[in-house]
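Schema walkthrough. Field components (list of strings):
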Amino acid sequence: MLETAETGRKVSKAYYHRALPALRAALLEAQAQLFAQQRRPVVVLISGEDGAGKRETIHALYEWMDPRFLRTVALDDPTQEERERPPMWRYWRTLPPKGHIGIFSGSWYSDPIRLRMAGHISQKRFEAQAQRIERFETMLVQEGAIVLKLWIHLGKDAQRRRLHALEADPRTAWRVTPWHWERLKTYDKLQHVASHLLALTHKPHAPWVVVDGEDEHYRALQVARVLLDALGAPMPRKQQRRPAPKPPVAGPVPKSAPGLAQLAEHAGPALTQRRYKAELALYQGRLSELARHHQLRKRSIVLALEGPDAAGKGGAIRRITQALDARQFQIIPVAAPTDEEQAQPYLWRFWRNLPRWGHWRVFDRSWYGRVLVERVEGLCSPADWERAYGEINDFEGELVAARVIVVKFWLQISQDEQLRRFRAREQTAFKRFKITREDWRNRAKWQAYQGAITEMVERTSTSKVPWDLIEANDKDGARLEILRRLCQRLEQALALS
Amino acid sequence: MLETAETGRKVSKAYYHRALPALRAALLEAQAQLFAQQRRPVVVLISGEDGAGKRETIHALYEWMDPRFLRTVALDDPTQEERERPPMWRYWRTLPPKGHIGIFSGSWYSDPIRLRMAGHISQKRFEAQAQRIERFETMLVQEGAIVLKLWIHLGKDAQRRRLHALEADPRTAWRVTPWHWERLKTYDKLQHVASHLLALTHKPHAPWVVVDGEDEHYRALQVARVLLDALGAPMPRKQQRRPAPKPPVAGPVPKSAPGLAQLAEHAGPALTQRRYKAELALYQGRLSELARHHQLRKRSIVLALEGPDAAGKGGAIRRITQALDARQFQIIPVAAPTDEEQAQPYLWRFWRNLPRWGHWRVFDRSWYGRVLVERVEGLCSPADWERAYGEINDFEGELVAARVIVVKFWLQISQDEQLRRFRAREQTAFKRFKITREDWRNRAKWQAYQGAITEMVERTSTSKVPWDLIEANDKDGARLEILRRLCQRLEQALALS
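Field assembly_structure (string):
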């Protein structure tokens, strides 16, 4: 695939200098529009063989455009803070916000290529990574990003000529080391691996553009043109993008998930306070011990609690965190996104809150907001919440693959029980602030929410991160059940059960 | 000082349980107000001797309050990302936003105490650190934060009794190690060092409260009461807080600073294009070489460019970054703060943008906005911009102390020259977006700005980070001068000149 780019095409210096000014003006204009509208981020990947002109290309982009709204991300070895999160975390944390252009020198392609070349991952795993990348980029595009992937290509002969030329000149000979000649030996392997990866991830909405790097003027003009085209690309049209429902990617839906309606109606005998306290102490003790398990020094835990207003999420979270050391956990109450979060893809605000090893993050409401409140309230388009199921499954899949322990609870209460709790809250001075007009408004959409909840549970209960559905009309019983299941999930994850 | 807290006061369990509910309700109410108003962050430091009940106190806070708006910061050894920034960076990045309560278990006091006890820093340095802390906390309070510093105290005898009691019980004996008995030997030293530090940093607006930790019920009630008092503290009144101008803390004002008015009027003979290009290449080459200096692998560089609209900041920045590798630098255009930035102290958005080792951050406008645009446009109170001079000097002082290279340029143009440039921009298609109604409005306040600029230069030109004043009516000359001075500053910092 790559060698087809070796067109040998050159342009004269004179032609270059004639053609460039108009291109530069157009690029600057397009960039100014991009920034003024603040609607789309631009992700530009600069890849290619050694010496093909990657650095020069980045340099040229800075020459041509307003450098204040460009940022180059060049990631070396992951830092410890990065190593303690899933591999994609470092890219999420460096994504450009809307209106800005992020240039990635080295990207999510670097690791698969390097690992496959060294034989550290199988072909199958390599292809699975390609699929993950493809889904990640599709997500970026559907979130409004412009994704442009450049491979600056230098043929093997050109590469060899380049090294010889450098060696021949006493001023540049020092730049050629034995390592460079070694790299030339792996040139064919790189071609093989990279070509395959490029083919797998070349999509109309996130295309690879291979640019012949040998002639610097040709290369520069090509890059400028390709970038200008990309900046002018229309926003994806939401209406057309509603895909057919797909099964979740990370595994099949467990057949045993009970219906939500039955869940709320079922109620066992109420617990005595004495029995509740005894069992609470028991489970909290067990959880406290599990939380000190040596494996957790190198793993982290993400909990999500979802449920209707007044379902008891806050109370359940308190019973969990009581068993933990406050230095270990943080509760993330999920409400409206900040403006920095709105300038990023939907999942960004959850990625940014992933814990380090040994730490817990407890989400009081979570990334499921898009398929619940945003869907029901019409805060996003149908296409947006439709694709969210797959994106959420991917997100949780990446967490699990990085050995993060993920547990998610749905607390179900009946409509009558919710009404009782709303009324009770209004009676209690220090709980009154918890009940707002919005709560009553949400309540009016109960049926719409039930439909959304059912679809959510069906489409995001994966074998690795199943929903734990909790009958929550009985508050005490629900708290115990949550603690019990949480302990179970931890024991499973730690391979203790 | 600390032993005066050994009151031996106890409260009965019965009294405790009678007194607590009202306190808890009041705390919850105060916290709800805090969150609803979103006006003030709360910083609570929990310090004290081993076993005095720090952990239990944090646990109690979580019991009493809404844990969703609490976060505990417990910092161990700095991570590499933290080590590559000034020591306070890790605290800045964990400050709670407005409406939230941040509990610091270990804080900016930990290092001075530890280092002084070990004799690694002199008494003088220790006291200088105390002063820095005091100024930092004053800044927090003046930015609206409630700062509460708790020292949970356990007397030496009580400490000894505690260890013996733990040892005597087979279930807890394992918790006492030889290390604990060793620590007891340094008890008196800790008392000495901590008492001194507490005395130095005990201020009415950020008081230390020493709580006798021996009786758990007494301790808990005291903490609850103190916190409740703190949450009810009135906002500092801006009007009363205008301090008398003080000399900048980091050094004297250089006497040789030329007047700004003269600066803009002075103009040498214009450069020929040929000479400009030759000199530009010369300085860029020198800068490029300096940027690769081995020392910079463990140091970082912060540049700030300030000046009136159309003074040529952007053009100068381009000439600088042309000499750098795009993977090394990022330009930070400073405009209106985001809402996350508004929920933090003013300097937070500059702290968050400090570079790692080997990296440059070029600020296109900077932390001087407060004493320029915010002052002139009345975007902050006079008290706010008054205190900003000292805070800015402290900020730059901390950077320099951490071996960050800081260079700041003021580009001065005359009013006539600005008018010419505005008109020219309006004529050029791709520059038209750079000129807005606001630019014209700012221009009308030229005189007010000149006063603010003069005061800024006088009060923030410190011996370590002097202003580099640039005559910028001649664009090319200004660019060369900036490059020349930047090279000089780097050579000074790298001790090459």
